[in-house]
UniProtKB/TrEMBL annotation:
InterPro entries in alphabetical order: Ada-like_dom_sf, Ada_DNA_repair_Zn-bd, Bifunct_regulatory_prot_Ada, HTH_AraC, MethylDNA_cys_MeTrfase_AS, MethylDNA_cys_MeTrfase_DNA-bd, MethylDNA_cys_MeTrfase_DNAb, MGMT_N_sf
Name of the molecule in the record: Bifunctional transcriptional activator/DNA repair protein Ada
CDD domains (UniProt xref): ATase
Lineage of the organism: Bacteria, Pseudomonadati, Pseudomonadota, Alphaproteobacteria, Rhodobacterales
Catalysed conversion reaction: a 6-O-methyl-2'-deoxyguanosine in DNA + L-cysteinyl-[protein] = S-methyl-L-cysteinyl-[protein] + a 2'-deoxyguanosine in DNA; a 4-O-methyl-thymidine in DNA + L-cysteinyl-[protein] = a thymidine in DNA + S-methyl-L-cysteinyl-[protein]
Length: 354
């Protein structure tokens, strides 16, 4: 069993078996079941027929299950992140990657043999948004790139697949918190897109430091952009600086397993207490986790767990300020604004840095 798994001790067999029967998603990334009669190991959420209690072995990691001689289930795909275990999600994500500029609709889903309501529920469960929302964000990415390169508004509108300027402006404002013409003003803070294996991110920086780094599908992104804009007097435009290039290069190394620490210079826009919490997050090494209580104790405020949790939730510089490394006291992967599926995958990926 690896060191991260050692940190998350498994509870008693009765608790785990009850979670298996309930297909409890709270145990995703924390426990796996090996079935001695089949030699297969599964997620606790696997839809397969449930084994008898006496035929179950419990593991904290896929590595431990494989080391014990079990092979991965072909239904729930326990070697991948949660979303990767859903064939419907895998299929549609692959299609979206192939055709990011396509104007996906419910008619397209029906033509592929998918029930739109089933697709909606699956994507909401894994990503907190629908597939069509993700498709619109992908089209907006193209529009952002066009505007950053100086394209006329009508060209960017067409690139994003919108028939009307008002529809384009409304979608842009929902995503970024500003109308396009506001973002195009000459300013000293610039927004640009960075691709990662876990999805696109919006990075806002000046020539010296990073001010915001968020996954594009985070629900609170528009609110975060509005707050940042208000904090800097509306000085947010479109473009790229050397800090964007540095951030992108370090993220690439991080996801490739070659750079455990993201040491991009940052400006933390928050209260003094929030800034203390965010700096403490940066002190957590990759491959390790902390509970809210441990984080509160680390900053000398052991009774301020709720305040620490609120500060953690309001972090606007994802990954560089690694709020995903904070978990529940019992080892559960508690809420993450970027999506629990990302938190699961980030913690799993960071095991290589232990």
């Amino acid at each position: 069993m690896d060191k991260v798994s050692d940190m998350l001790d498994l509870p008693d067999d009765d608790t785990l078996y009850a979670a298996l029967l309930a297909r409890d998603p709270a145990w995703e990334g924390r426990a796996l079941v090996g079935v001695t009669t089949t030699g297969i190991f599964c997620r606790l959420t696997c839809p397969a027929r449930k084994p008898l209690p006496g035929n179950c072995r419990w593991f904290a990691s896929a590595d431990a299950a494989q080391a014990a001689g079990f092979r991965p289930c072909r239904r729930c795909h326990p070697l991948g992140a949660t979303a990767e275990g859903d064939p419907l999600v895998r299929d549609l994500l692959a299609r979206l990657e192939e055709r990011p500029d396509h104007r996906w609709s419910e008619a397209d889903l029906l033509a592929l043999g998918h029930d739109p309501s089933t697709v909606r529920r699956a994507f909401k469960r894994h990503f907190g948004q629908s597939f069509l929302d993700m498709a619109r964000a992908a089209r907006m990415r193209g529009a952002l790139a066009s505007l950053a390169k100086g394209s006329q508004m009508i060209e960017a509108q067409l690139d994003a697949g919108f028939d009307s300027a008002s529809g384009f402006r409304a979608a842009f404002a929902r995503l970024f918190g500003h109308a396009p013409h506001v973002l195009r003003q000459g300013t000293d803070l610039l927004a640009d897109w960075i691709d990662t294996p876990l999805g696109g991110m919006i990075a806002i920086a000046d020539d010296r430091a990073l001010h915001l780094l968020e996954f594009i599908d985070r629900k609170a992104l528009p609110q975060g952009l509005r707050r940042l804009s208000a904090h800097v007097g509306g000085r947010v435009g479109l473009g790229r600086t050397a800090v964007h290039d540095l951030t992108e290069a370090q993220l690439a190394a991080y996801f490739a397993g070659q750079g455990p620490r993201l040491d991009v210079p940052v400006v933390l826009h928050g209260t003094p207490f929030q800034q203390i919490v965010w700096r403490a997050l940066q002190d957590i090494p990759a491959g390790q986790t902390r509970s809210y209580a441990q984080l509160a104790a680390a900053i000398g405020r052991p009774t301020a767990m709720r305040a620490v949790a609120r500060a953690n939730a309001t972090n606007r510089i994802a990954l560089v300020v690694p709020c995903h490394r904070v978990i529940g006291a019992d080892g559960t992967l508690t809420g993450y604004a970027g999506g629990l599926w990302r938190k699961e995958k980030l913690i799993a990926a960071e095991r290589r840095y232990m």
